[in-house]
Amino acid sequence: MEAPVVGILALQGDFAAHARMLRDLGAVPREVRTPAGLDGLDGLVIPGGESTTMTLGIEREGLAEPLRELAERGTPLFGTCAGLIMLDRDHLGLMDLRAERNAFGRQVRSFEADLEIAGVPGGPVRAIFIRAPWVAEHGDGVEVLAEVDGRPVAVLEGDRLAISFHPELSGEPRLHARFLELVRARAGARR
Ligand code: GLN
């Protein structure tokens, strides 16, 4: 099968680290800044950053509706940190959950933890949290893959994966590999 083309929303935030990781895993990354950039994608990553700035960028570029159409076509999505916030009910409304921003306390700017994540074999994942959200509420269709302090920090709903932390910064490839499994399965079914 051809290498999947995976977009990374590149309005703001740490998109370059995602591009490197996806390339290392055999995908073709594409930075997306306009609606036309979404054409022909096999998957899309919404990176970490700052969710208010990202929301303004999405409005400015007219990306909200094209992103919803991409999701409706069944394209797998992967949101990390601010990207998880963008997917929630109060933002793009693409996952049946509500994210709590800066949930671990404003003073705790960042911390690291070793997390066991359902569906990610090979032992715990080193997870870097930076002013991270958690999932405050979610519907029955959302599977919780990992928690910190009893709060979901990794979730899966169909082909939409969302996590509170930054595997692209710790050089941890297994979450991106899991996402690419969703992407390849979906692209394989379509071709
Ligand atoms: N605190 C940021 C926000 O609320 C998210 C932080 C991150 O993406 N690392 O948008």
Overview in brief:
This protein has 191 residues and is α/β, with parallel strands linked by helices.
Counting H and I runs of at least 4 residues, what is the number of helices?
6
Mean pLDDT: 95
| CATH homology superfamily name | Class I glutamine amidotransferase (GATase) domain
Question: Any guess at the CATH architecture?
Answer: 3-Layer(aba) Sandwich
The name of the CATH topology is: Rossmann fold
Order of helices and strands: EHEEHHEHEEEEEEEHH
The N- to C-terminal Cα distance equals: 9 Å
Helix content, binned percent: 25-40%
Give the overall shape: globular
Question: Largest sheet, if any?
Answer: 7 strands, mixed
- Each distinct ligand: glutamine
- CATH top-level class: Alpha Beta
Q: Which structural category fits the helices and strands?
A: alpha/beta
Strand proportion, as a percent range, falls in: 25-35%
Instruction: Provide the spatial order of strands within the biggest beta sheet.
Output: 2-1-3-4-11-10-9
Word description of this protein:
With 191 residues, the chain is α/β, with parallel strands linked by helices. It has one domain (5-190): Rossmann fold, CATH 3.40.50.880. Helices cover 29% and strands 29% of the residues. The chain contains six helices and eleven strands. The strands form three sheets. It has a seven-stranded mixed sheet. A hairpin with a 2-residue loop joins strand 9 (143-148) and strand 10. The model has no long low-confidence stretch (mean pLDDT 95). Bound molecules: glutamine. Glutamine binds at residues 48-51, 81-82, 85, 101-102, 130-131. Residues 48-51, 81-82, 85, 101-102, 130-131 line the site of glutamine.
